[in-house]
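note to self — DONT lose this again. spent like an hour looking for the file last time. sequence + predicted structure for the chain T wanted, 161 res
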Amino acid sequence: MSKSHEERRPARRAFSLAALLLSAATVVAVGSAVFAQDHAEAAGATTLDGVFTAEQVARGDVVYQRECAMCHGANLGGSGMAPPLAGIAFMFYWQDKPLSELYTFTRDNMPFGNAGSLPAQTYADIVALILDANGFPAGDTELGTDVDALAQITLVPAPAE
């Protein structure tokens, strides 16, 4: 064999190994993405599925302005006294959690100093307002108050604006 042929053999092996590793990585990445999507679908609904109605948002806004805006701000942007209920900081905290956690936290802790004082459906309406403010779509079915049902809905990343 010529010297140049001998010199090319390691380069071919390296190229073949790199191609093999790239192929394996692609298969793993695609498989993981498909698994994640199938797992999310099997887990139940998400906040992208229209899990509240526009009517709930309107009702929730009336109560929110009266009971919540003084601390969380009229536009849900937060204040020095309370965190934002819309935007990146909100989603960073609540993303990938079941909607039941947001509902029960709100019901069990708000309004500050008078927790649990609102009707259960009113808390659901306020959660609908919060979802709407974060860009999630309204649907045809009202968000209910059944904690087990809410646990089947996952807060997913907010849609791009």
